[in-house]
Amino acid sequence: MEPAELHDRLLELAREAGLRVERLSAAGEGEAPTRSGVCRLRGELRVLLAPGDGIEDRIEALAAGLRALGPAPLEGRWLPPAVRARLEGGAGGSGA
User: Fold this and answer.
1) Does 22 map to a domain?
2) Number of independent structural domains in the chain
3) Which letter does DSSP use for residue 10 in this model?
4) pTM of the entire structure?
5) What is the Cα–Cα distance from 3 to 51, expressed in whole angstroms?
6) Residue 93 lies in a domain
7) Residue 26 domain-assigned?
8) Range 21-24, long-range pairs (CB < 8 A, 24+ positions)
9) Could you please report the per-residue DSSP string of 27-93?
10) In what order do the strands lie in the sheet with 37-41?
């Protein structure tokens, strides 16, 4: 699965699972660059996607956010092997 398709599948899965995903704006002059990642704000888990990060960094942030939800939102769902591999912590998703 191509990285762009893996990214889109994880993004869709995150939204369906109720995970809040936010796209950050680019850092302004004199500001530190932002990085994609997962955080908890006021008890709510969020995935933050930074525009300057490569697609692999954004994919990993989405996968980490989904892993942080635990298995319940994904139980009983069929997932493409590349998506399942990424959620299980592997780097599967390139090429196959």
Assistant:
1) yes
2) 1
3) H
4) 0.85
5) 16
6) no
7) yes
8) 21/46, 21/47, 21/49, 21/62, 21/65, 22/46, 22/47, 22/48, 22/49, 23/49, 23/51, 24/48, 24/49, 24/50, 24/51
9) P-TTSPPP--EEEEETTEEEEEE-TTS-HHHHHHHHHHHHHHH-SGGGTT----HHHHHHHTT--TT
10) 20-23, 44-49, 37-41
Q: Left (φ > 0), alpha (ψ -120 to 50) or beta: where does 70 sit?
A: left
Q: pLDDT digits over 19-36, tens only?
A: 999 998 876 666 666 889
Residue 60 structure tokens: 């990993």
77 within some domain:
yes
User: CB of 93 within 8 A of CB of 59?
Assistant: yes
Q: Which domain holds residue 71?
A: 3-87
Structure tokens at 90: 């592997």
pLDDT, tens digit, for every residue of 44-58? 999 999 988 999 999
CA distance 96 to 88: 16
Supply the pLDDT for residue 94.
45
Residue with tokens 């599948």: 9
